Amino acid sequence: MGELTNRKTNKNKNKKDYNKGKNRTKEVDTLRSSEKMNKGQSTIEKELQIIEKKKQTKESYFCYLLAINFILLTIFVIIFVCLLQTSYVNPPSQTTEEKFKHLEDSLPIVDDSIKELYNEKNGHYNYGRYLSPLESKVAFPTVGSLGKLIKQKEWHYVSISTNNKESEDYFLAFAILDIQYVSGMFAYIVEKETGEKWETSSTIIFPKLFKVFGLDQSRISNSSINGCSSFRSYYSSNEFVDMCFNKETKSWVGRMNLQMYNQKQDSTKQLRGLIKFRQNQDLILLFPLEENDERVSYVHKSAALQLYESTLRFDDLFIETDEATVAIDWTKAIAKRRTEWFWASCSGHTTLVDNKNDESKIIGINLSQNIYDNVIGVSQENGIWFDDKIYIIDHVVNFIAPENERMLLDQWKIKSNPGQEYKTSDTLTYQFYVYSLNLNFTPIGSREEHIHAGILISDFVQPYGVYSGTIELIDTNDKDNIIEIIIDGQFGVVEKHLSLW
């Protein structure tokens, strides 16, 4: 009996020990599980801390960047105030004779590409008009770094005009610009039938500072056919426009994704897609803005180019571009403090007066006044693109613009001086010239910018609308055969611009 009792006691004791061991195992497992959870939580907390630190670092970085911008802006304003008492603020307007007295005759026309801007042997630039652009980087060795920082201005402008008869017809223009202490971008698209305009623009102050911190928000290509011009919005990385040159296909490739705003409708639409157009006939100008070599401008103009590929969409609408034409303006200059000009640009389809088959041909127009003239007022960048040739305008072309308050209400007139010869110099041996030109421009809207900030002024009006009139072309090898072209309803722009920069 006692033996049985002892057995039961031992059994109960063993059972208790077993349960204790089981409980201890559970406690250990629970403890291990808790430790794992704590470790997991600790890892998550560490990751959250890292993310928070990165966020704080980014916020601190941008605060630091904004603080530097504010300091530099303050210094800039102080310099402006100091200069307010000098004639630098508003240099007097000059007559054509005063402004261009250093250029008595027209620049030579070279039927070749420009090989180099500066001739180190004679210490001068190779001023002239060329038919192919510079491939290497456009640089001005006579100007130091500080001079470039203050005086260098550059931009890349592209316009596209569709020719759709059965679907929506559009005109699109965009530009990337850099005046060193400010860079920017603007773009607008116009529905030709209604005149409705959607637009966007963006500005970056002290863009070079952003580049120091690795933010390349804005840049202009090394030359018109070397590299990329691009702009990224400071506020949204999804907003951008690029224009790059592909050397293999000899074409420009553009990409964009821009939110466009219509002020009348208070609505937005997205403009996005890709465009491609090939290089064709080019007009290159290397021009002396002053008598010495300290102020010089390199200009690449081309018109009557054709899109060969496009995926452009305006919201959900695919833009038909089968017969779309393109114009470009790539400019880099050590600009004068006071710069002003008139400009006209158009690319489209037209017909000849004696064209019995009513065959449509592509025409391009580039005209200016008061910016690249010689002493008698002949602009050195004026040309007409027609039938795969550039016809040089080597006589005075006058812009007769309405007064400011009537600029969008009245017609502009652009015409040759009556009775003037089609070329002004016997030394010019180029074959194709414009004999006469008589154009009217009817505006239907505009893109404008009016900035008056102390010693900085930008008064910019770019009306868009339609051209009408006639242009007469001549081949000097066949002077009796004058080609007369009718301009009737071609869409384009004119521009009046004054800058103190």
Model description:
With 501 residues, the protein is of the alpha+beta class. 20% of the residues lie in helices and 46% in strands. It has four helices and 27 strands. It has a 16-stranded mixed sheet that branches. The model is unreliable at 1-8, 83-87 and 422-427 (pLDDT under 50).
β-strand percent reads over 45%
**What integer is the average pLDDT?**
83
Radius of gyration: 33 Å
Structural class: alpha+beta
Largest sheet: 16 strands, mixed
Shape: globular
Proportion of helical residues: 10-25%
Distance between the amino and carboxyl termini: 117 Å
Beta strand count: 27
Short characterization:
Helix content is 20%, strand content 46%. It has helices at 2-83, 96-99, 145-151, 207-212; strands spanning 109-113, 118-119, 124-125, 128-132, 152-161, 170-178, 182-191, 197-205, 218-219, 228-232, 240-246, 251-262, 267-278, 283-288, 296-310, 313-314, 317-318, 325-334, 338-352, 361-369, 383-386, 389-392, 397-400, 412-416, 432-453, 456-475, 478-500. The strands form 3 sheets. It has a 16-stranded mixed β-sheet that branches. A 9-stranded antiparallel β-sheet has the order 22-21-20-19-27-26-25-24-23, with no helix packed on it. A two-stranded antiparallel ribbon has the order 2-3.
SSE diagram, text form:
Blueprint: H1 2-83, H2 96-99, E1 109-113, E2 118-119, E3 124-125, E4 128-132, H3 145-151, E5 152-161, E6 170-178, E7 182-191, E8 197-205, H4 207-212, E9 218-219, E10 228-232, E11 240-246, E12 251-262, E13 267-278, E14 283-288, E15 296-310, E16 313-314, E17 317-318, E18 325-334, E19 338-352, E20 361-369, E21 383-386, E22 389-392, E23 397-400, E24 412-416, E25 432-453, E26 456-475, E27 478-500
Parallel strand pairs: 1-4
Antiparallel strand pairs: 2-3, 4-14, 5-6, 5-18, 6-7, 7-8, 9-10, 10-11, 11-12, 12-13, 13-15, 13-16, 14-15, 15-18, 16-17, 19-20, 19-27, 20-21, 21-22, 23-24, 24-25, 25-26, 26-27
